[in-house]
Amino acid sequence: MRLSWARRPEWCARSPAEPCVRSRMHRAPSKDHVTMTAPVVCTPGGSGPILTEAPPTRRRSGAGWQSPATDGQHRSQRRSGGLVTLQLTGIVGPVMRAGSPEPLSSGNLARTSVAESPPAASSVSRRALGVDVARAVALIGMIAVHVFPEENADGQMTWAFGIFGGRAAALFAVLAGVSIAFVERRSHGQLYGRTLAADRMALVVRGLLILWIGLLLGYLGAIVTIIPYFGVLFLLVVPFFGRSSGFLLLAVPVFAIGGPVLRHLFAADMPERPNDTVDYTVATATSHPLVFVTDMLLAGDYPALLWMVYVCVGIVIGRQTLTSRKLALVLAGWGTVLAATTWAISKLLLGPAGGLERLVAATPDLTRAEIVEQLAYGPEDEVLPDTTWWWLTAISPYSNTPLNLLHNLGAAVAALGIVLLLTHRGGRIFTPFAAMGAMTLTLYSAHCVVEMLEVLDEDRPVVALWIQIIAFMLFALIWRNSVGRGPLETIISDASDWVRTRVGTPRNKTRAETPGREKTGSRRKTAADRAAT
């Protein structure tokens, strides 16, 4: 039998007393032989190679070696590295080891080899590391905004609000879009039919659970949480799930411009919240559904209809090769350009172009100082005044104007690019941040509890911030090493996966398709035959 070796990986790094495993491809030249692929175990004792079980006959195509029926199973076996015993059927002649005249004995054929050593860290793990670290940065930024006041004792803006005000939440929204792109990859390009319906239904369940958790956090009354808005975001993104990247990029200016225009047009007609000082709960959302939906979509602090800008861009970014150094540089560069350009345009329109004077003339209810304060710190209420269209030129935090949305988008994309660039080579220094970023929903909820209990000194925000960061990192490391995913993340993931499996399974699947069972029609036919007999 002639063997032609198609690939020969390096020997595994094991001790001389242990066997080494390498994969070989051999094919037979005649019809009396079968074509197979098998990993080969070469023992150090010179007893020859031990062929393990190969998949059935495979055909050569443009994409490589394929099996008509169970190619997916073979791919999973190759990824897992599992090896089982070979059954040689229809093979004539001894199997020889390359470079040695010693045949493979029949006794060696019955031996079962050991599993291969686990592969090194893949690009998938490095990709997850960078995304998780970016999530940790976004979480730390949102905690800093809640812990620090907007102004110092001397009336100057604090560094925490100046850096993270609105930008940290935007980064979190962009990363939500990246996570949705990761969900798309599970379908391996088969985003159509029942597979697409199953993924979209799982996304609906994920959004409803996040919305429910956010409304439960509203009972704490500590801060205005972003979680309910994110739940609505997941619901809004369902029609966009599986769409092309070009379609998503075309939707970005529609949401970035059309959303603020609708918000400005209907600002005076929007229903008022029953209590502006407390967050939404299950009771208030169900008792005032119109107000709740309006705030979630347009009038709230994080209006989901406008924030679809971040999610759409995040999905497009998540579809790219996040381990690419070039991509990280592109994100960091173009994000910085977008953030700087929108900031400059706003300053130009409100300054030399006379925008501030027009705001003062069109808004007599506010003094010049109050208008300048809103242009710096954001609206006092949830929506800027609607006295003139010049208010849409503002770029202040949480103003949700077109320039503010694009500015925050650029800052978030630049931050993600910088983090991906720093974590390109990996490193243990990022492990605590990655563990923290892998359970942001759980840790954000814990932060809400800490704010409600008021156990930290508000007059010492730096100490309060570091205590929470260190405590959350330690908890995340211990939990991940002992349990795995965060508790809230586990609930949401398991529920969405269960729905995906239920919806993705064909309803007309009969019992005969389950191993060990027969079709219902076959049982009825057999019973009818016995009765006739």
Can you give me a brief rundown of this structure?
Keywords: Membrane, Transmembrane, Transmembrane helix. By secondary structure, the chain is mainly alpha-helical.
Structure description:
The chain crosses the membrane at residues 160-183, 226-242, 247-266, 296-317, 329-350, 405-422, 429-450, 462-479. Residues 127-324 form the Heparan-alpha-glucosaminide N-acetyltransferase catalytic domain. Residues 510-533 have a biased composition (Basic and acidic residues). Helix content is 55%, strand content 4%. A hairpin with a 2-residue loop joins β4 and β5. α3 crosses α15 and α6 runs antiparallel to α7 (227-236). The strands form 2 sheets. It has a 3-stranded antiparallel beta sheet, with no helix packed on it. A two-stranded antiparallel sheet has the order 4-5. The chain has helices spanning 71-80, 106-109, 123-147, 159-164, 167-185, 193-217, 227-236, 245-265, 282-287, 289-299, 304-318, 325-350, 355-362, 368-377, 402-422, 431-437, 440-453, 461-482, 487-504, 520-532; strands at 20-26, 36-42, 49-51, 59-61, 64-66. Residues 1-124 and 510-533 have low confidence and may be disordered. It is built from 20 helices and 5 strands. The chain has 533 residues and is mainly alpha-helical. The longest helix has 26 residues, at 325-350.
